[in-house]
Amino acid sequence: MSPLARTAQVPAATDPSLIRNFCIIAHIDHGKSTLADRMLQSTGVVSSRDMKAQYLDRMDIERERGITIKSQAVRMPWEVDGVTYALNMIDTPGHVDFTYEVSRSLAACEGAILLVDAAQGIEAQTLANLYLAIESDLNIIPVLNKIDLPNAQPEKYALELANLIGCEVEDVLKVSGKTGEGVEDLLDEVIKQLPAPKGVADAPARAMIFDSVYDTYRGVVTYVRVVDGMLRPRERIQMMSTGTTHELLEIGVSAPNPVPSKGLGVGEVGYLITGVKDVRQSKVGDTITNSIKPATESLGGYEDPKPMVFSGLYPMDGSDYPALRDALDKLQLNDAALVYEPETSVALGFGFRVGFLGLLHLEITRERLEAEFNLDLISTAPNVVYEVMREDKVMITVTNPSEFPEGKILEVHEPLVSATILAPAEFIGSVMELCQGRRGTLRGMDYLSEERVEMRYTLPLAEIVFDFFDHLKSRTRGYASLDWKADGQQIADLVKVDILLQGEQVDAFSAITHRDKAYAYGVMMTGKLRELIPRQQFEVPIQAAIGSRIIARESIRAIRKDVLAKCYGGDISRKRKLLEKQKAGKKRMKMVGRVEVPQEAFIAALSTGEEKKK
């Protein structure tokens, strides 16, 4: 292969038979981004001088944490037998919270590279992503990565992978994303094994939006996969779900920086810029067509991801509320799973109730809001969605403890998840003990090999939201992996625990928990607040209550002035009179005094990081 072929210019509006669309799917930390880096170098679209690790991870937060959060599309030229092909690669996230990003990427591809770490083998998210790819009817290329590691066992895991997919052991490719070994052979196999995209070139244009980002200077940048027809610059396009029309100012491909082209044809992946500033007009999953000669049927969109965890986000400074609203608007554009609605709290003021896919999604979103939009935020303890039936048979959806109805309740439905845990066989006992302690039910168990076991559990979502994964990792010395998906509801004995300060309820500290764990939550929260709230001039009781029944109590002792300091010697009755006067003053103060909880106490008591450590 000539060196010129590697730096061949990216062709515009390519013949569909010369296009290959594929994505890389794997468990978190199995080397997707590193392999993508080597592909960019091998194809010559990024020079060695410009190369940096995790090249496609554009966000600061991705580079800090070493994880991929956003899928990134890039177009690469590759020559085989004198013919230059255009490879559209999408690098996807690996964490369970970002599965919706993977599903969107799969819809834009004909094939997937299933990547497995040669030192760790198949993990839970590997299976989950493989099933997603099979459901999308994609061709799958099995690849073992990190074969250069001293503890790699390529032969053992190649057999495991071959048994899983149903191919021969020889068909499993072996590469090293770090050294580049086997990457060129893999690119040849992508062209050989994956089909070219199919579509009707002379039909009305149809393109699916699989991602969008907001650019401060250019407005909304929309990433599309063209299925039929052709899109050209300066023509008017129409969004099929909303019917809105826009002029197409620029169209092009990511290679990996934006390269404007004269149009995108069948099977091509690229970006569009219409100059639209309103983020709601470019909905992920929508179909774009030509407004003069529109298509009649839209392409199948994506299922909207359903939020699993809800948390309140409040600005530290109340005047930042409009800025927070604008920031959430912009973030929602390139994070389709984010849903939010305004809410108010007596303690925290105006804020938003935000829905997330999991705890990592919550952490990442909050960090992005703080870093990208320069906001200081408080987040309340995460909650899941409950269905509560009152005595009058009215069903109420509860996303916030303050919405939990008072009075008699017939039943409470809580969400369940179907969890898959992969772990070494020696840890079966400790994993079972953890799951049973979290009200889990074992549904089945299979041995993938002599040393590795797959366990399937049904667990309440509320039990795995906080620190389940941390405990699972510590009990299995870091070897276990977890994947889960929503799996219906069950009736459970759940109660709302209120925290009272001076007899007044503080809504931000309320929680919905199982009756067996309510006492532990009450003791933990009252103890924490006793340390955090400063002492007052009068004694302050902190109580945890279920309804009208107090289940835990702590007291903050009063600050007392020594009124007897100037009484040396003299009659005891004088001292008693001063003490009685002080006592009466304290009593009066207790009746009219209010306890102001400082902002620092809210932050410390509600921060999820503290919650997990406790």
From TrEMBL:
Binding residue positions for GTP: 29-34, 145-148
Location of the protein in the cell: Cell membrane
Catalyzed chemical reaction(s): GTP + H2O = GDP + phosphate + H(+)
MF GO annotations: hydrolase activity; translation elongation factor activity
Please give the chief subcellular localization of this protein: membrane
Q: How does it sit in the membrane?
A: Peripheral membrane protein
Q: Which UniProt keywords are given for this protein, alphabetically ordered?
A: Cell membrane, Elongation factor, GTP-binding, Hydrolase, Membrane, Nucleotide-binding, Protein biosynthesis
- InterPro entries, from UniProt? EF-4, EFG_III/V, EFG_V-like, EFTu-like_2, G_TR_CS, LepA_C_sf, LepA_CTD, LepA_IV
- Please tell me whether the keyword Transport is annotated for this protein: no
Domain Tr-type G residue range list: 17-198
Domain of life, source organism? Bacteria
Q: Which Pfam families match?
A: EFG_C (PF00679), GTP_EFTU (PF00009), GTP_EFTU_D2 (PF03144), LepA_C (PF06421)
The keyword Transit peptide appears for this protein: no
| E.C. designation(s) | 3.6.5.n1
Recorded hits in HAMAP family, A to Z, give:
LepA
Q: Which family does it belong to?
A: Belongs to the TRAFAC class translation factor GTPase superfamily. Classic translation factor GTPase family. LepA subfamily.
Q: What does this protein do?
A: Required for accurate and efficient protein synthesis under certain stress conditions. May act as a fidelity factor of the translation reaction, by catalyzing a one-codon backward translocation of tRNAs on improperly translocated ribosomes. Back-translocation proceeds from a post-translocation (POST) complex to a pre-translocation (PRE) complex, thus giving elongation factor G a second chance to translocate the tRNAs correctly. Binds to ribosomes in a GTP-dependent manner.
User: What is the name of the protein in this document?
Assistant: Elongation factor 4
Q: Which organism is it from?
A: Glutamicibacter bergerei
